[in-house]
Specification:
Length: 708
């Protein structure tokens, strides 16, 4: 099976679309570029479909690489037959491939290998053919210096048969099927650790049993974490007697003196070789599925977070709240530049609320502050209440902003490079303010898995997680577009075709030569060649450029099309921007060519209507219930405002303005069956919840979604 056939088999996409997409990928085109600017070649595939092609292309390449290594290994052993070579070449998955390779794999010294060296292989074949009525007599022919008696000879022969059984692909597949259908995952608490305080969060799994194929992602990952932390033992179990009986049915065809030895060999093969290997394989496969499910949830959450509502270019006063150490205050320009910082002490033990109010009020006047951002950590509610007591001269909106990951950023190299002369507290406050202005631009500076919207993100495959999250960040950055004259190196590095090194070169060029005035000038950046320009130019925006298309998603390669449209309408380029009446008159068919079709032309006219339109909603002010200060203030039946701060497969967590987030279990999201939590709520959505249950000792809050 060739690459294109392999991909189309698993994606069910048109062959021509797959062929052209693979060609573009081989030409080093990025997924965002292909999905946006090569629609005619791909048949209008979206980012998800192109991402699937990328995934299966990588799988195919890995499979072919493994085939080559296996063929070489078997050939070096002089064991490669034409039939085996054909089977290996035709294998379509790694499991089949590894089963074919199993008999030729270099192993540790085994009991079977020792028996073969002692000349017992012919005896094993006699037993397996099941034609001898006196196997003890046959065994007596194989005694030697290393084989003392008939019992030793028969035991050695059984070891050889056990290994042969283990290497049979049909038997392995039969047992795989049984495990897939009937395997149970069971847990038992480690008695010595049963009463540990940290073990209590896993107490549901102290004595647990469940069908492996029905165990949801979050539960399997919790069970495996409990095992890794040493609180439980995990086992995979099936009906052993039934499994052995099924093997015997396949192997035993007679009833004579060979039969008991075959039965013993089957039991040994099952217990010592087959079940340990394949049950471990089944658990690993379940873990892979659980990882993929958790990563999918994390990716959806991350996308929603990155595309969170920006306030835009406003002058912001940001506060990182605290009690004993005070509240760090910074003033930022509309472009996010740090203009001022200091610390106020409105809370215990200093309790200088009067001084704090005066200081905030004077800073708001001095720096013409338009909005205030307060971190949602320790002392957040108290600080918010203090700010709302201030009578500002102008209308200043107050926002509470998630601090998740801010401490990671403030101690990072990126933060040190941005603010070498300030400590982590100042950097953290700056990050809070910038998150309000533009969540995407700020959050790309933080390792995605530290942002706090994942489900068991430290337990899943870290390479898979990183690749998936990088894809999400890249998609979000290129969906929104980047202002090349204000973007940081981390933000620029996610732009299609740019990467970290070119991002550094862009910023260095900008610092040396001033702001870019046109997209054409981007070509002057050192080492930014034609390919990088082709891939990235349309995602880089230049505000107030002479050519208005430089602040749009229209690709420079299509400028000539717009120029012709404008000429045909008899107006200037500036007159067509946002002019829906003129745009409606354009006959798109007139501009179709061999390479440019209706999909691209429709994208162009959409941009002409609203060039550089930000797909994100604007930030909205939100207020928690001011009477709820701690979990002890909660009562069953209360209706409270909240903000969704994390989404999992089993429900969503909601910030209701106290230290503990409440859980809306999936069963409490709707009156009907909920398949996907994301269909009912999204990250940072402002909702009303009803308190169902409050468990103060365990600090757990059960909520339901209140229909407004």
């Amino acid at each position: 099976m060739n690459l294109i056939s392999y991909i189309t088999k698993y994606t069910q996409l048109p062959i021509k679309s797959v062929e052209n997409t693979v060609e573009l990928l081989n030409e080093d085109c990025t997924v965002p570029f292909i999905s946006r600017y090569r629609k005619e070649r791909t048949g209008n595939l979206d980012e998800v479909q192109i991402g699937n092609i990328v995934q299966y292309k990588a799988q195919y390449d890995a499979l072919e690489k493994r085939k080559a290594a296996i063929l070489k290994s078997i050939e070096e052993q002089d064991s490669l037959t034409p039939e085996l070579e054909q089977k290996i070449t035709k294998a379509e998955d790694l499991t089949t491939l590894e089963d074919l390779y199993l008999p030729f794999k270099k192993k540790r010294k085994t009991k079977a290998e020792t028996a073969i060296k002692n000349g017992l292989e012919p005896l094993a074949k006699i037993i397996l053919t099941q034609k001898s009525n006196d196997i003890a007599f046959e065994a007596s022919k194989y005694l030697s210096e290393n084989v003392a008696n008939e019992d030793d000879a028969l035991e050695g022969a059984r070891h050889i048969i056990s290994e042969w059984i283990n290497e049979r692909t049909d038997i392995r597949n039969q047992l795989r099927l049984q495990l897939e259908k009937f395997a149970q995952v069971t847990t038992k608490v480690i008695t010595a650790k049963k009463d540990d305080e940290k073990a209590q969060k896993y107490r549901d799994y102290f004595d647990w049993s469940e069908s492996l194929n029905r165990c949801p992602s979050h539960r399997l990952l919790a069970i495996l974490r409990a095992e890794n932390e040493g609180y439980v033992r995990v086992k995979i179990a099936i009906d052993d007697d039934k499994a052995i009986s099924n093997l015997a049915y396949r192997i035993i065809k007679a009833n004579n003196s060979c039969t008991p030895h075959l039965q013993l060999a089957i039991e040994d093969a099952y217990k010592r070789l087959l079940f340990p290997s394949l049950s471990n394989e089944a658990l690993k496969a379940a873990k892979v599925k659980a990882d993929e499910s958790a990563i999918t949830v994390f990716s959806k959450n991350l996308k929603q977070l990155l595309l969170g509502s920006p306030l835009g270019e406003k002058r912001i006063l940001a506060i990182d709240p605290g009690f004993r150490t005070g509240c760090k205050v910074v003033c930022l320009s509309a472009q996010g530049e740090l203009q001022h910082n200091e610390t106020i002490y409105p809370h215990a033990p200093q309790n200088d609320s009067t001084g704090a109010i005066k200081k905030i009020s004077s800073l708001a006047d001095a720096y013409k502050i338009e909005a205030i951002a307060i971190g949602n950590g320790t002392a957040s509610r108290e600080t918010e209440q203090l700010i709302k007591r201030i009578q500002f001269k102008n209308n200043i909106e107050v926002f509470v902003v998630s601090e998740a990951g801010a401490s990671i950023y403030s101690a990072s190299k990126i933060a040190r490079d941005e603010f070498p002369n300030y400590d982590v507290t100042v950097r953290g406050a700056v990050s809070i303010g910038r998150r309000l202005a533009d969540p995407l631009a700020e959050l790309v500076k933080i390792d995605a898995k530290s942002i706090g919207v994942g489900q068991y993100q430290h337990d899943v495959d870290q390479t898979l997680l990183k690749n998936s999250l990088d894809t999400v960040v890249e998609s979000c950055v290129n969906t929104v577009g980047v202002n090349i004259n204000t973007a940081s190196v981390p933000l620029l590095s996610y732009v299609s075709g740019i990467g970290p090194k070119l991002a550094e070169n862009i910023v260095a060029y900008r610092n040396e030569n001033g702001a870019f005035t046109s997209r054409a000038e981007i070509k002057k950046v050192p080492r930014l060649g034609p390919k990088a320009f082709e891939q990235g130019a349309a995602f880089l925006r230049i505000k107030k450029a002479k050519n208005p298309l430089d602040d749009s998603a229209v690709h420079p390669e299509s400028y000539s099309i717009v120029k012709q449209m404008v000429k045909d309408q008899g107006i200037a380029l500036s007159e067509i921007i946002g002019n829906k009446e003129v745009i409606k008159k354009i006959n798109l068919q007139q501009y179709c060519t061999d390479t440019v079709g209706i999909p691209t032309l429709e994208d162009i006219v959409k941009e002409l209507e609203k060039p550089g339109l930000d797909v994100r909603e604007k930030a909205k002010v939100f207020t928690f219930n001011q009477n709820i200060r701690s979990i002890s203030d909660l009562k069953e039946g209360q209706l409270l405002p909240g903000i969704v701060n994390n989404i999992t497969n089993f429900g969503c967590f909601v910030d209701i303005g106290i230290k503990e987030s409440g859980l809306i279990h999936i069963s409490n999201l709707s009156d009907s069956f909920v398949k996907d939590v994301n269909e009912h709520v999204h990250l940072h959505q402002q909702i009303i919840v009803k308190v169902l249950e409050v468990d103060i000792p365990r600090k757990r809050i059960q909520l339901s979604l209140h229909k407004q």
